[in-house]
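Entry 14. Structure prediction run on the chain below.
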Amino acid sequence: MDTDAGNGGPLDRFDRAILDILAVDGRLPITELAQRIGLSKSPTQARLKRLLAEGYIRGFRAILDNRKLGLDHVAFTEVKLSDTREAALEAFRQAVLRIPEIEECHMIASSFDYLLKVRTADIRRYREVLGEKISSLPHVASTSTFVAMETVRESHD
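Output returned:
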């Protein structure tokens, strides 16, 4: 059901169209965005401002070419913790945030606790990150690594 989301209500078709379009091209000029969703510039700007203020849009960023940057080695690391009480989980999560090579960290319902996506220049650098950083994270009992041979699709493709 479409409602007037401009007054703090649920998202309507215009809001969802803005989100869908900006997810593909966050640099789209406001005039073109307005034209594509079928509204004038002012209401489109107001909706965009509200979507930002309400946290539907968390930010805008550049998508980098990791191969050109020499960072095309991707490994997925399963991490099993020795302690899964909330304090231990929080200590692990906070420590992960301080390791720039970890692109993603997901708590998993499986025989292990977390799955990390780690990006480095090569396998040598990954081994250093694993040995010096990941293995020394709080409560890490064991890890297992899977090296990506090819990336077919990433979320921004």
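DSSP finds five helices and four strands in the chain.
Filed with the rest of this week's runs.
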